[in-house]
Amino acid sequence: MADPSKLHPADEVTPEGRRQFLRCAAVTGASALVPASLLSACAAAMSFQGVVADGRVRVPADQLAQIEEDAGLLVNAPGLQEKIWLIRSEGEWLAIGAECSHLSCQVRPRGGFIACKCHGSTFILDGRVVRGPATEPLRRYAVKDIAADVEIEIR
Ligand code: FES
Q1: I need a labelling partner for 109 at 20 to 30 A (CA). Which of 13, 55, 76, 137 fits?
Q2: Contact (CB, 8 A) for 48 and 75
Q3: Which of 82, 99, 100, 135 is the best mutation target for the ligand 1 pocket, counting ligand atoms within 8 Å of the beta carbon and taking the most?
Q4: Half-sphere exposure at residue 119, Cβ-oriented, CA atoms within 13 angstroms
Q5: Which residue, by CA, sits nearest to atom 3 of ligand 1?
């Protein structure tokens, strides 16, 4: 795991970012004529649009299969209080609110931490603060395995 004191909010070179860059470079290197939309897709976070039913959002197995270790899928659904990062870490699922507890910017998992670019707050993957200015943890949601799918419980 990276040392949080070495992280900087503007630092884009993380293991996750490096892997994503190499994947994108491999794809774009195959052809000199790459559509701009492909390049922008490489920079975007993976996201999933779900539905809240009975206080839960179900994320299907095919979406889960795309999430790398210590990386996340940004889950959104009409009626959610905030978007939620579904993160795979050490074989477990963590569902963490994507809204920073400082001033509500969107946070993002990178390099084994969750970082906020607005003012540099850094959290460990379970949402606890390791560097301010945030003083409160990110919201954490319960996660349940349902066969090969995962359900996030919305409070
Ligand atoms: S809003 Fe995230 S650190 Fe200020």
Answers
A1: 55
A2: yes
A3: 100
A4: 11
A5: 119
